[in-house]
Amino acid sequence: MKQQTFAFTRSENLKQKPEASTLEFGKVFTDHMFTMDYSAETGWHDPQIVPYAPLELDPAAMCFHYGQTVFEGLKAYVTEKGKVLLFRPDKNFERLNRSNDRLCIPRLDEDLALEALRQLISVEKEWIPTAEGTSLYIRPFIISTEPFLGVAASVSYKFIIILSPVGAYYKEGINPVSIAVENDYVRAVKGGTGDAKTGGNYAASLKAQEVAAASGFSQVLWLDGLEKKYVEEVGSMNVFFKIDGEIVTPQLNGSILQGVTRDSVLHLLNHWGYPVTERRIAIAEVVQAQKEGRLEEVFGTGTAAIISPVGKLSYGGETYEINNGVTGEVAKRIYDTITGIQKGELEDTFGWTVEVK
Ligand code: COI
């Protein structure tokens, strides 16, 4: 691609950067953002880096009414030697376009989106925190902007990238969380939008999350929307089980999000020689394995938390303690390896990191 330098308006009011020790997830934003507009006549146009600021949108803008939006999440790190690294950003822009297809949003040029991200990160380098467990979370997203109350695909859109220095997603960090298997609500069904990264999936998850939290659980384990028998995801993450030495994750079926971390975990496990299977897995099988002492580990995988081990699982009125409530060996090994590669401390065998100059 011909290298393009985007228009840049520097902020005149630079913010104070937060103390790394105070960082939570997604509450603080940097000084600048990338924006680009779409209209049916001109296509995607007017790419620029501008001061981070509220948007002005018509109250009838379609994103407010019918949820025609998509988003992504990825992270930037700075290595001990001061190199800035992104982790598999191409995968996120690929997935953004798959989500676009599902939500009838026009596709983006993935190379242009990556170049936009590089230039934005380059401007905001100083915002990347370096303390253990911190990173710069990147949130690319697209909203429909046409002022129209008819249910149809919008004719105009805005693509935006914002950046947020973050600490751990879950207060537990890499320590195990407690999970309730969800029997009433479902997150997604095959044929719906479960495999697209769109806001509605997350809105649909809130009720179950609230109910679980009221009973003292951090997250829910989602079952399939049809039979409520098969495991799909955990919270907003993909899920893995270690049963009798074999590592199993639900196979992608149209209602499960194709996680970038999920894919990285599968690569690592195969590389290390663990038996790994992507298949349908029934909750009854998981519970049976636990009762027979064969369920060795359960963990979620996602960009925000990377790995989140499950220490307690509640199902059918019983609460089971997984792996004595401690982080399992495999979960820890994956967490250390992925974060090590992301921070440039371990060899990037798979060519996953992309340097930003
Ligand atoms: C992730 O695990 O990265 C997610 O998708 C959570 C995000 C919506 C904050």
TrEMBL record:
Catalytic activity of the protein: L-isoleucine + 2-oxoglutarate = (S)-3-methyl-2-oxopentanoate + L-glutamate; L-valine + 2-oxoglutarate = 3-methyl-2-oxobutanoate + L-glutamate; L-leucine + 2-oxoglutarate = 4-methyl-2-oxopentanoate + L-glutamate
Cofactor: pyridoxal 5'-phosphate
GO terms, molecular function: L-isoleucine-2-oxoglutarate transaminase activity; L-leucine-2-oxoglutarate transaminase activity; L-valine-2-oxoglutarate transaminase activity
Entry annotated with the keyword Protease: no
UniProt keyword annotation of Heme present: no
UniProt pathway: Amino-acid biosynthesis; L-valine biosynthesis; L-valine from pyruvate: step 4/4; Amino-acid biosynthesis; L-isoleucine biosynthesis; L-isoleucine from 2-oxobutanoate: step 4/4; Amino-acid biosynthesis; L-leucine biosynthesis; L-leucine from 3-methyl-2-oxobutanoate: step 4/4
Record's keyword terms, sorted: Amino-acid biosynthesis, Aminotransferase, Branched-chain amino acid biosynthesis, Pyridoxal phosphate, Transferase
GO terms of biological process kind: isoleucine biosynthetic process; L-leucine biosynthetic process; L-valine biosynthetic process
Positions of post-translational N6-(pyridoxal phosphate)lysine modification: 197
EC identifiers of the protein: 2.6.1.42
Family: Belongs to the class-IV pyridoxal-phosphate-dependent aminotransferase family.
Protein name: Branched-chain-amino-acid aminotransferase
